[in-house]
Specification:
249 residues; alpha+beta; 2 domains; 7-stranded antiparallel β-sheet; 3 helices; 24% helix
Length: 249
């Protein structure tokens, strides 16, 4: 009987110890999504301008379509990335001569803007693996720190990238993020919210984009470098002319 009790205790302890960090991270992310707009993310068509390019974003748990439109020397360019793949048109004509490398580059570019604009909603992607790293403090505010990685199956071309998110312990707002990436030569960045606007019940955030001197810096060291003033402002991430259209049920 004592042996049976010990075995049962062991398995219960193993179960709880193995799922605590994951479940806590998931709860934090879920609460943050609610704080940033919740269900409005899934019932809205979002449009904005970013660096002279117009974006239209639609995303639900099962479907997405990201569109960007801009003008260059070839004419009016429209890129569409959705569950079916990527298509580029110029002046309304489909460009079917794109190489796989170009399709991949254009797809990553469109997806990257949509991903960051839709944060923290995208963190519940099925391929995302969330890990709670504990409590921390930045600029006098208490945060819960969550790390997000992606499994290779379903994680896209960015599955090796690593992300850190700082969620306010009291308000669950995502005020800071940092990430390492491997495309285009690789590197690491940290973003700090610079301004906020609320449109259609969704919180949209602009960011200061910061970088360290050494692009090989581990993403876990970015907070330390930020606090010590060792990050350089690289650019500003500003969404303009934001419009939110509620979609019918």
């Amino acid at each position: 009987m004592k042996l049976l009790q010990y075995v049962l205790f062991f398995f219960f302890a193993l179960e709880f110890s193995g799922c605590d960090s994951r479940s806590e991270a998931q709860q934090i992310v879920d609460e943050s999504i609610v704080a940033h707009g919740g269900a409005a993310f899934e019932s809205s068509l979002i449009e904005f301008d970013f660096r002279e390019t117009h974006y239209t974003i639609f995303k639900t748990p099962s479907a997405f379509e990201y569109t960007r439109e801009f003008s260059d020397s070839t004419g009016m360019v429209k890129d569409v990335l959705n569950n079916s793949g990527f298509v580029r048109t110029v002046n309304g004509a489909v460009i079917d001569t794109l190489t796989e490398e170009r399709i991949g580059a254009f797809s990553r570019s469109v997806n990257s803007v949509a991903y960051f604009a839709f944060l923290p909603y995208g963190l519940n992607d099925p391929a995302a693996v969330k890990t709670y790293l504990g409590e921390t403090e930045l600029k006098g505010k208490a945060y819960d720190l969550v790390k997000v990685t992606f499994v290779q199956e379903g994680g896209g071309e960015h599955f090796e990238d690593e992300f850190l998110y700082w969620f306010g312990r009291e308000d669950r707002l995502m005020d800071f993020m940092a990430y390492s990436y491997h495309t285009d030569g690789g590197g690491v960045r940290m973003r700090e919210v610079s301004s906020v606007s609320e449109v259609g019940g969704i919180r949209f955030q602009n960011y200061l984009n910061l970088k360290p001197a050494d692009k090989e810096t581990p993403v876990e060291k970015m907070q330390e470098l930020y606090v010590s003033g060792q990050l350089e402002k690289l650019s500003e991430i500003n969404l303009e002319n934001i419009q939110v259209t509620q979609l019918p049920d």
